[in-house]
Amino acid sequence: MNGQEIIATQKRRRQFRVRNRLKSGRPRLSVFRSGRHIYAQVIDDTTGKTLASASSLETALREKVGNGGNCAGAEFIGREIAERALSRGIKQVTYDRGAYRFHGRLAKLAEAARAAGLDF
Known about the structure:
By secondary structure, the protein is an alpha+beta fold. It is built from four helices and four strands; from the N terminus they run H-E-E-E-H-H-E-H. The chain has a four-stranded mixed beta sheet. The model has no long low-confidence stretch (mean pLDDT 90).
């Protein structure tokens, strides 16, 4: 295996470990980040459907967010996903950070979602 394959395998293992601990029956707030953008979605794992989503790529949010690759953009997306989830009657979720560490943009998104009313 080369270096990239090893890193990909380690990332899949971390992601599996995190998701395996999340089985609580609540909808899952899944977060993905890239270098320029951040994405969040609330997923019902029993039906496999996305209940609410927000990202820094949406045309309606793009002007307000500015750069989705920084903490300010992550905070805005956190507030937006909380508003959309609460409007659909979802108050309790579990936070799925995937293979990422809980710091920086992911922490800011979680803090903003909690401040906006989501419970996790």
